[in-house]
Design a protein that fits this description.
It is a single chain. The protein has 12 helices and 7 strands. It is of the alpha/beta class and 282 residues long. The strands form 2 sheets. It has a 4-stranded parallel sheet with strand order 3-2-1-4, with helices on both faces. The longest helix has 20 residues. It is globular.
């Protein structure tokens, strides 16, 4: 284990949840961890690295236009700091017309592209692909999970019964810098279903979000609605957006949007799924 990756800091860090996760990972023997850099995949990567060793735990970051450049850099920084065995691989979901069409099953096409890219690496390692999915993720519209599972992926956090709060608590106890990192889904999740996934659109969303983070905002989404950018931020940051509204408007318009709106409901993960739930009568 790399000295840069903290070990459990005492008996409280070795909680039942952590023990369950370690047991699941140990039982897999060899893994390829899909590392996106968020709290979930980072915890999974750190535990796999510690209990299996780098020779049996390969961490891979899938690079495509749907991944913000800042997130890709963050993964590389984590790997270097923690001593992970790490590499990148390109995925080709943008070559799939079904993915570009952005239907309700977009995430399934994305995960199939991910598993297509990771499959050969896992075969070469005689390993199992593992994804950072927690139990909270099971309750929303997540067709990608079913697609990944069908392709042979495992979800150790789910198997260990860990929620998002559990992941953050365990990460903090383990001394991981990612314990409070804001959630960051792929850039395509900012587009309403039915709006084609195009490179200029993804770049506009990425530029707007990057500019807003440079203004000090942490948990946010820029939801794309044609010429309108609907900005979601955490409720506790709504006042900050208003106090910086001129800078916020300038930053978002510089990314290519004509109009800037602030969603008064605040940040909601998966808010684009609301219309799906409504159409289903939920």
């Amino acid at each position: 284990m790399s000295a840069a990756l903290p070990a459990p800091a005492g008996p409280h860090a070795g909680s039942e949840g952590l023990a369950r996760l370690e047991a699941v990972v140990t039982g897999l023997g060899r893994v390829v961890v899909a590392l996106s850099g968020g709290a979930d995949s980072a915890l999974l990567a750190s535990v796999a690295h510690r209990v299996l060793g780098p020779e049996r735990a390969l961490c891979v970051t899938a690079v495509s236009p749907s991944l913000a450049a800042a997130d890709a850099r963050h993964c590389g920084e984590l790997a270097a700091a923690w001593g992970l065995r790490w590499r990148t691989v390109e995925t080709a979901e943008m070559d799939d017309p079904a993915y570009v069409a952005n239907g309700e099953d977009r995430c399934a096409h994305c995960k199939r592209a991910l598993m297509t890219a990771l499959g050969p690496l896992a075969a070469a390692e005689s390993a199992t692909v593992v994804l950072g999915v927690n139990t909270d993720d099971l309750g929303d519209h997540r067709p990608g999970q079913a697609a990944a599972a069908a392709a042979g992926a495992r979800f150790p956090l789910v198997e260990a019964g860990l929620s998002k709060a559990d992941v953050r608590a365990l990460s903090k106890r383990l001394g991981l810098s990612t314990w409070d990192r804001p959630a960051s889904a792929c850039l395509a999740s900012r587009l309403p279903y039915g709006t084609p996934v195009r490179l200029p659109t993804l770049r506009a969303v990425e530029a707007a979000e990057s500019a807003l983070r440079a203004l000090g905002l942490r948990e946010l989404r820029v939801r794309h609605h044609g010429p309108v950018a609907r900005v979601e931020v955490a409720e506790e940051e709504l006042a900050a957006v208003w106090s910086k509204r001129a800078a916020v408007v300038a930053a978002v318009k510089a990314a290519g949007y004509e109009f800037v709106s602030l969603d008064l409901e605040g940040f909601r993960s998966g808010s684009m799924n609301r219309l799906l739930r409504r159409s289903a009568g939920v």
